[in-house]
Amino acid sequence: GPTGYEDFIQTDASINPGNSGGPLINLNGEVIGINSLIVSASRGSEGLGFSIPSNMVKTISESLIKHGKVVRGYLGVNIQSITPELIQGLKLERNFKGVIITNILSDSPASRAGFEQGDIIIFYDGKKTESSEQLRNFVAATRPGRLVKVKVLRDNDELEISVKIGDLEKIEKQAGAGKENDLLGLTVEKVTPEIARNLGLRKAAGVIVTDIQQESVAARVGINNGDIIFRVGNREVNDTEEFSSLISEAEKEGSVMLLLRDGRSGRVGYIIVPLK
């Protein structure tokens, strides 16, 4: 299934269980993608398939060969694609494309480079940015430590900002080892002061989601990597052990209410999660 970094090519080529991972070839005999998944009720091909683009495969394979792992860049911002409503509200040109910064994480590459909340990113490293997903992939594919020029729109003026891209793995490792919760189908880690600082939080509290199992309870209710859970029911969560204990206690009730912070938007709210 889809994961956090994706930029699929949609294809009607026949993809069935067992042949995912094979090449997607154009009419010139060139490999343009790797077949990855299908949308089907029967698990057989119904003409709606998706392939990972070859340029993304090339970037990942080069990273694996050179480093033995996938190395991803880190900017340290929360972002949102420019929508028709934002175009109207910000009085932008019709059909304007770009990505607006909704939050800048403290002590991040973006904060050190001088980005501001409300900046609209229109070019990243010479490439036009038209959606938050596209920008996320651009940043992830950038080698940590590289200096990148980013063009932004600020108060109707175009500015060029140079930013030294950080290492996403170092940020993710600051939390230490995670603890799996099989009932919800996710892994959480304690929010440390370092994580809180990098996420722009006033204090270290709760647990942060670092992994979601496919087709799990957590995935079905829309919990994502980077979300922070502050409360289970009416009780605060201080560490991973306490989180697991509170979820186990709630199982007999059939559902549980979680107070969480959306890792992408920064919004905090309650959700109801079924446990049966």
TrEMBL record:
UniProt similarity note: Belongs to the peptidase S1C family.
Protein name per UniProt: PDZ domain-containing protein
Domain PDZ: 64-156, 185-262
Keyword Glycosyltransferase on entry: no
Any GO MF annotation of the entry: serine-type endopeptidase activity
Gene3D superfamilies registered for this protein in UniProt: 2.30.42.10, 2.40.10.120
Pfam families tied to this protein: PDZ_2, Trypsin
Keyword check for Hydrolase: yes
Keywords: Hydrolase, Protease
Gene Ontology terms describing biological process: proteolysis
